[in-house]
């Protein structure tokens, strides 16, 4: 159907058919620059856990919703910066993930399925987690639950010693003494080992000879 002047809201009077004013031209150009919802499609990206937008006419893709009106005039600059930050971060991590996949000869579209690629692409630590589970039941276990090291020789000896002695206090005491010795040596005030003199060596040799004679004295009686 052809658009009639009445349907478009235009006046048919000669005065109104004259050239439009500057304000009318600005309004018309602003409406023409707005994207239409028919050409844009929202597509879910499981790798990024968010939607991206695809234009079926121009073949353009973007992370920012082009249909949603801009709110930069209503919000402070800090809020717009914080909104664009996560998209940029996710895009850079995905690019690094694909680069690692290509370097190892893996299809980039399947890179998100390999956890080793995700760990080598610099993904933030809040995207990674560890958990314990029971090998027999398969149920998740507490973080502070027992693991196979609980039955190691060191742990068993430690538990046995803790029954009779305060092993923790002894370990702290040894650690404190070692730390004090290291600090004293660093400051040049540590105890330097005295080298034996020639007289000391002769005395040690004579003591060793007399000790050997004493051990074999019963053979000469």
From TrEMBL:
Domain WW, residue spans: 34-68
Top-rank lineage group of the source organism: Eukaryota
Any Pfam family matching the protein: WW
Bias type Low complexity, positions: 1-20, 69-89
SUPFAM superfamilies with a match to the protein in the record: WW domain
InterPro entries assigned: WW_dom, WW_dom_sf
Chain positions covered by the region annotation Disordered: 1-34, 64-92, 182-205
UniProt cross-references to Gene3D superfamilies, sorted A to Z: 2.20.70.10
Name of this chain's protein: WW domain-containing protein
Organism: Suillus placidus
């Amino acid at each position: 159907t052809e658009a009639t002047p009445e349907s478009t809201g235009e006046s048919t009077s000669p005065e109104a058919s004259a050239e439009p004013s500057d304000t009318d031209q600005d309004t018309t150009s602003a409406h023409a620059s707005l994207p239409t919802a028919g050409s844009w499609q929202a597509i879910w990206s499981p790798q990024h856990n968010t939607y991206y937008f695809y234009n079926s006419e121009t073949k353009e893709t973007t992370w920012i919703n082009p249909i949603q009106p801009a709110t930069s005039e209503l919000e402070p600059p800090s809020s717009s910066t914080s909104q664009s930050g996560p998209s940029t971060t996710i895009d850079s991590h995905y690019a690094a993930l694909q680069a690692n996949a290509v370097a190892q000869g893996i299809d980039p579209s399947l890179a998100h399925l390999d956890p080793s690629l995700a760990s080598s692409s610099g993904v933030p630590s809040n995207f990674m987690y560890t958990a314990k589970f029971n090998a027999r039941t398969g149920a998740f276990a507490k973080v502070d639950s027992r693991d196979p090291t609980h039955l190691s020789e060191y742990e068993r000896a430690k538990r046995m010693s803790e029954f009779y002695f305060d092993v923790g206090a002894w370990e702290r005491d040894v650690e404190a003494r070692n730390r004090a010795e290291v600090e004293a040596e660093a400051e040049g005030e540590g105890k330097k080992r005295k080298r034996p003199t020639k007289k000391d060596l002769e005395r040690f040799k004579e003591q060793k000879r007399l000790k050997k004679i004493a051990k074999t004295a019963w053979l000469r009686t």
